[in-house]
Design goal:
Enzyme class: transferase
CATH class of the largest domain: Alpha Beta
Strand order of the largest sheet: 5-4-1-6-11-8-12
Largest sheet: 7 strands, mixed
CATH topology of the largest domain: Spore Coat Polysaccharide Biosynthesis Protein SpsA, Chain A
Pfam families: GMPPB_C (PF25087), NTP_transferase (PF00483)
Helix content: 10-25%
Mean pLDDT: 85
Number of strands: 31
GO molecular function, one term: glucose-1-phosphate thymidylyltransferase activity
Structural class: alpha/beta
Radius of gyration: 22 Å
Distance between the termini: 55 Å
InterPro entries: G1P_thy_trans_l (IPR005908), GMPPB_C (IPR056729), NTP_transferase_dom (IPR005835), Nucleotide-diphossugar_trans (IPR029044)
Protein name: Glucose-1-phosphate thymidylyltransferase
CATH architecture of the largest domain: Alpha-Beta Complex
Low-confidence stretches: 1-8
CATH superfamily of the largest domain: Spore Coat Polysaccharide Biosynthesis Protein SpsA, Chain A
Number of domains: 2
Number of helices: 8
């Protein structure tokens, strides 16, 4: 697959991807893992932006991680299997979203670079946005998207394709163009960190660098900053419903569906991917669905937009629009489970008469017994 990628970049470009933070809005799932390793269509979510960068032709990727994080480098690796070089830099304190640019300066050097949060997922890839950045001779470029809930984000004020101002979480309407956490920069951005003072909006005593002060300093100094709109699907996967939405999007866009497992007396409908070593017996599966390695599904219904990780067991149950992480078990649940996220090695065991449409989010190694209603 990787030897078929067409390189589209005519000078060295790197990527700096953020994979730090604590993922507090996705607890308890993030109590035991880096948020960016949560699965989307049975693939760590950070792989979406990594693959977008690779498709753009980027060959060197820097990933910012929390101090002492050994799990993400172990899972993602050094990039050799993807045909790229992946390096990691640790951040000791939470100094804001833009701070990794400062600490990665020596690794980035004199190259242009993609700068993105590791939990941003978008449709259509990055090629046209990068072309806009290059063709317009910009020193900075941000992807923006229209949102009705603009008050919850930093917003962009534009004049044509030119960015003229950014405002963090405006209380009154100024613009509904929200800043995604996806940018392109030249090394000109490093100048900002020598000039602006970080702020401490949370009163923690830890100074932080946020996008608006950095961007507005560049604009004020005459650097050209442009914007391009994401007209398709975009998601910042910060909430459980966002993770489920991203999973559904990834399943819709997935192209390489195949049946490699063992299927017995089972009805399959739609796009379904079942890995080798899995067994489906006397069940019904309606895609899009992806099933990992070593999975057992018996006497069950698996509905659309469900991802089932390696080593899971589903028996005598109904599940749809859900994510089951590796090693989890759902057994004898008579009601339909939907919009669920089950952490690794968790168990959901049912009774005989339960309310339909149960939704659950469980961390790793949890066990839930759904008692019957009398």
């Amino acid at each position: 697959m990787w030897d078929q990628i067409i390189l589209r970049i005519d000078q060295p470009v790197k990527a700096l991807i953020l994979a730090g933070g604590r993922g507090t809005r996705l607890r308890p799932l993030t109590n035991t893992r880096n948020k960016h390793l949560l699965p989307v269509a049975n693939q760590p979510m950070i792989m979406r932006i990594i693959l977008d960068a690779i498709d753009l032709g980027i060959k060197e990727i820097i990933i910012n991680i929390n101090e002492g994080d050994t799990e993400l480098p172990r899972v993602i690796g050094n990039g050799r299997g993807l045909g790229v070089k992946i390096r990691y830099i640790e951040q000791k304190t939470p100094n804001g979203m833009m701070f990794p640019i400062k600490i990665a300066q020596d690794l980035i050097g004199d190259d242009e670079f993609l700068f993105s949060a590791g939990d941003n997922i978008l449709a259509g890839g990055l090629e046209q946005h990068y072309r806009d950045f290059r063709d317009k001779g910009s020193q900075g470029h941000v992807l923006v998207v229209k949102r009705p809930d603009y008050q919850n984000f930093g917003v962009a004020v534009t004049d044509g394709d030119r960015l003229v101002d950014t405002i963090e979480k405006p209380k009154e309407f100024i613009s509904d163009l929200v800043l995604t956490a996806i940018y392109f920069f030249t090394p000109a951005v490093f100048d900002a960190f020598d000039q602006i003072e970080p702020i401490d909006p949370k009163g923690t005593g830890i100074p932080e660098y946020y996008p608006p002060p950095v961007i507005n300093w560049m604009i004020g100094k005459g650097y050209k900053f442009t914007a391009s709109e994401v007209t398709g699907w975009w998601k910042d996967t910060g909430q459980p419903e966002d993770l489920l939405g991203a999973n559904a999007f990834a399943l819709d866009k997935k192209e390489d569906y195949s049946i490699k497992g063992e299927i017995k007396e089972t009805k399959l409908q739609g796009r379904i991917d079942i890995a080798k070593g899995s067994e489906v017996i006397n069940s019904s599966i309606r895609g899009p669905v992806v099933v990992g390695n070593g999975v057992t599904i018996e006497n069950s219904y698996i509905g659309p937009y469900t991802s089932i990780g390696n080593g899971c067991t589903v028996k005598n149950s109904m599940i749809e629009n859900s994510i089951l992480m590796e090693g989890s078990t759902v057994s004898d649940v008579s009601a339909r489970l939907e919009n669920c996220i089950l952490g690794s090695d968790s168990e959901v065991l049912g009774g005989s008469r339960i309310v339909d449409g149960n939704s659950l989010m469980l961390g790793d190694n949890c066990k839930v017994l759904l008692n019957a209603h009398q």
